[in-house]
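We emphasize that the prediction below concerns an isolated chain of 147 residues; any contacts that depend on oligomerization or on bound cofactors are therefore not represented. The input was used exactly as deposited, without trimming of termini.
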Amino acid sequence: MSAERGLAFVDTNVLLYAYDRSAGERHGRAAALVAGLGGRRQGAVSVQVFQEFYVNATRKIAEPLDHDTALGRLRALGHWRVHAPRAQDVIAAAELARAAQLSFWDAMVLRSAEALGCAILWSEDLNDGQRVGGVTVRNPFGDGGGT
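Result of the prediction step, given as a token string:
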């Protein structure tokens, strides 16, 4: 799959809001985005996002998910495109972090999005409209957010 098919990468924070019913309007926006991407088979994540999602969904959101529910979410997301970074991806992310003055973890998410050919990265952790390589960051909670 490539950017031409509209593949979009979803960062951990957006996934957490999608399944955190206590998140108010952010829950609604994130849930609609995730459902839309899933329904159109355009969603993408990485192993890093899987790991962060599980830990945070079961421990750190206002109403944590129980193990079985969180595991069910992971199984559903496993039908999306999933990037499993290799050594060269970690090296590229470290270089990107330095060059673009990003945290390593944000650079790793961007590297995974780029590796999958995603045109869009849905995240609230970076600047809306920011373009890194072939990936444009979009914040689903801003004025222009959504699918």
